[in-house]
Write a structure and sequence with these properties.
Helix content is 23%, strand content 25%. The chain is of the alpha+beta class and 729 residues long. The strands form seven sheets. Strands 16, 17, 18, 19, 20, 21, 22 and 23 form an eight-stranded antiparallel beta sheet that branches. The longest helix has 21 residues.
Length: 729
């Protein structure tokens, strides 16, 4: 049943008469959007409402949402922020317990609402949908709801310093002269503020966000270095995601420069013109008041901050960062081994997942801030284990992409978001991701609810089938193979946009995998079907298998065999059993002649055919294509590519490089959480002899799983109700 809202959708009057812009379209069928009013971009609306309570409430909570985003304060205290990005036809609201913030007498709610107005991967913005809705419950009664009596002002304090990334965010040249510092307080006089407008025909369809809001907390720097009087270099010790904060006291109009960076340049200054296409240089203008506080609104990915100003104005002790990420119990999954390199690899992968998981699974928290379907395969897999089995974010992501079928039944590559991007390789992985959620949750109702989307997805790609069942000329979406382009190992097919004519290996390997997953979903749901997989496998072998080399070629008519063209057939079980060794030898020779994204499939394919020693040797390799190379280059979170200079715009926090986490847990240690009531199989650890000691602990709902390994002996401790799954009996 839909929730009944007493609260009205309120907004700045600037938007009241504007009709929403439809930003949805096929990527290959671009539309000309109406020109967006530049004055309404990067718009910061401050909203207030005072109310009186006769007594201290026994219980109290608030339901709240905003478009694009809000930060909520009650009686000057920060409560939370959100919502997670979502499509307007299924828009999220958050619920907070606010009993501890309320008091008898006068109270005030203050909300900082931000409308960005850009078309990008971050929010569903640029559509003129702006504003706020909220209602407060005290002891189960609605005591306050948004309406036309709430007051607002449009703040000019966050002046645009231009955009960074792929129009991802506005830089914020913050002017403390233009902010009323007490606007969140009960004592603030808002008589000069104006009243909001109600949007009576608002088209947001609100549902409660299925995930908790991001955790927000403050950390202090690991080190502060004085470069010169008033000039500081601040090191937080590791890449983080959030906002830098500080305090200063100076003359009105005095300017302090703030530079954020992921790394240092050759002169040991913050490399604020970052290699990932973000120039994190901003300017803070002081008000002349006794104390000013720097208030950045949007977040960045950074480790270092360089502050340049006048020494007598800056409070060095105030340097801090407000960190944000999806809630993560750092004790839920602990890994320790006698191999120091392996421990370090685990750490940088864990950190990247931690800071790359925000309200969704981000490809990176800097240049793009988008949730990509292909990244979900790896990042989501890692997060499930690192969180001790918290499946809420993963389920939401799976459903986010199902909702993108509104634009195309073949699904979008990034969702939600107002940028329309489509990648065929990614779309075909969605049934695999859906199955992964099922195997960890046993949620057969969700699987059944998603089934029509799976069927429509398969039918969508079916229109590209040749008579032999293989796909050709899949031109309406990117055919990615791997990223960046120089990580494709010479793949012999025209991957331009649109893709060239013909039939090629990788897209058909993913298609085969999708049909295989489709079959498994129908098996679970008890749906009858005619199994086309054997014929499809034979067609694949006939089209791409080279009898002389024992390898698969890249395309129909090609003589070239890329790593990717042999990894995916091995992973999906296409490679003939008597020629698997040829594929293994080829992969061993090639190593990671691919990107970090495809490395996941390399490791998983080798594990499937029992090559665990090779899996381990690749994870701990010290080649230039390795996690070891990232560490040599100073990584504290895993990179977008194997090295900083191996891509033209490498982000230094990219959780799609976290493949070692699920591979070590599932394929080396042998743990896989079970679906209740399904067949139990034994643990089958494949721990290399070179690891003399290993200790892994994973928290699950029913207790802890613990694996201890010393000198070849493996001991597994688990509560009886924790099962290890295979197939349904």
């Amino acid at each position: 049943m839909d929730k009944i809202w007493k609260g009205k959708w309120i907004m700045a009057p600037h938007f009241k008469e504007l009709k929403p812009i439809s930003v949805f379209h096929k990527e290959t069928e671009p539309i000309i959007l109406p020109e967006h009013n530049e004055d309404l971009k990067n718009l910061h609306m401050l909203v207030r409402k005072e109310f009186i309570l006769s007594d201290k409430p026994g219980s109290a909570f608030i339901d709240i949402s905003a478009d694009d985003y809000y930060k909520l304060y009650i009686n000057e205290e920060f409560v939370g922020q959100g919502p997670a990005p979502s499509y307007h036809f299924r828009y999220y609201y958050n619920r907070y317990d606010i009993s501890k913030y309320l008091k008898p007498g006068k109270n005030v709610i203050a909300v900082h609402v931000y409308y960005q107005g850009l078309i990008n991967r971050v929010w569903n913005s640029g559509d003129y949908r702006q504003g706020l809705i909220a209602q407060v419950y005290v002891d189960d009664d609605i005591v306050l709801a948004t309406d036309s009596t709430w007051k607002y002002c449009i703040s000019q304090a966050w002046k645009s310093g231009g955009t960074v990334g792929y129009d991802t965010q506005f830089l914020e040249n913050f002017d403390s002269r233009l902010i009323e510092p007490k606007w969140r307080s009960i004592d603030f006089n808002d008589s000069h503020w104006e009243y909001v407008c109600e949007k009576h025909d608002d088209d947001h369809k609100l549902i409660m966000q299925p995930t908790p809001p991001v955790d927000v907390y403050t950390i202090k720097p690991k080190e502060v270095t004085t470069i010169a009087p008033g000039h500081y270099l601040i090191d937080f010790g590791s890449e983080i995601t959030g906002q830098f904060v500080m305090e200063a006291s100076g003359k009105s109009g005095q300017v302090i420069e703030i530079r954020c960076a992921e790394e240092l340049d050759s002169n040991n200054h913050a490399r604020y013109k970052m290699r990932c296409n973000c120039d994190y240089q901003e300017f803070w203008t002081l008000s002349g008041r006794q104390k000013d506080v720097l208030e950045f609104y949007d977040y960045k990915a950074f480790r270092y901050v360089e502050v340049i100003g006048q020494d007598n104005a800056i409070d060095r002790d105030s340097f801090a960062a407000i960190v944000r990420h999806y809630p993560m119990d750092e004790d839920a999954c602990l890994f320790k081994s006698s191999h120091n390199l392996l421990n370090s690899i685990w750490e940088i992968c864990t950190n990247a997942v931690k800071y790359g998981c925000q309200e969704g699974y981000l490809d990176c928290p800097s240049r793009e801030k988008g949730q990509y379907l292909g990244d979900l395969t790896i990042t989501g897999h890692s997060q499930i284990y690192l969180s001790g089995g918290d499946l809420r974010l993963y389920k939401k992501a799976v459903e986010d992409f199902a909702l993108s079928a509104t634009v195309c039944p073949g699904l979008l590559a990034v969702a939600p978001g107002s940028l329309m991007q489509e990648i065929a390789d990614y779309s075909m992985q969605w049934p695999m991701q859906l199955l992964r959620y099922f195997w960890h949750s046993g949620d057969i109702d969700f699987l059944e609810r998603m089934y029509p989307t799976v069927k429509n997805l398969v039918d969508y790609f079916g229109k590209y089938r040749r008579p032999d069942g293989l796909l050709a000329n899949v031109k309406d979406k990117w055919n990615l193979v791997d990223w960046p382009e120089n990580a494709r190992d010479g793949y012999d097919f025209d991957l331009g946009r649109p893709v060239g004519d013909g039939c090629h290996n990788v897209i058909n390997a993913f298609y085969y995998g999708m049909i295989k997953d489709y079959n498994e979903i129908r098996d679970i749901l008890g749906i009858d079907y005619e199994d086309e997989l054997p014929e499809l496998r034979q067609s694949f072998i006939k089209a791409f298998y080279n009898e002389n080399s024992g390898l698969f070629v890249d395309a129909d008519g090609s003589n070239h065999s890329a790593l990717h063209s042999n990894v995916l057939p091995l992973y999906f079980g296409i490679t003939p059993l008597d020629r698997q060794k040829d594929a293994v030898n080829f992969i061993q020779e090639k190593g990671f002649s691919c990107g970090v994204y495809m490395a996941y499939f390399v490791l998983k394919a080798l594990a499937k055919v029992g090559e665990h020693e090779l899996v381990y040797s690749l994870i701990t390799s010290d080649s230039i294509h390795s996690w070891s190379n990232m560490l040599k280059e100073g990584a504290t979170t895993c990179f977008e590519a194997w090295g900083k200079d191996q891509k033209w715009n490498t982000s230094l926090c990219h959780p799609w490089a976290s493949a070692p986490i699920p591979v070590l847990i599932e394929d080396i240690i042998g743990l896989k959480p079970a679906v209740p009531g399904w067949k139990e199989i034994k643990f089958t650890p494949k721990i290399p002899e070179s690891i003399k000691e290993l200790d892994l602990k994973i928290k699950v709902k029913s207790g802890e799983i613990r694996v201890k390994h010393r000198d070849g002996e493996t001991l597994i401790f688990a509560p009886e109700e924790v099962k290890i799954y295979s197939k349904k009996e």
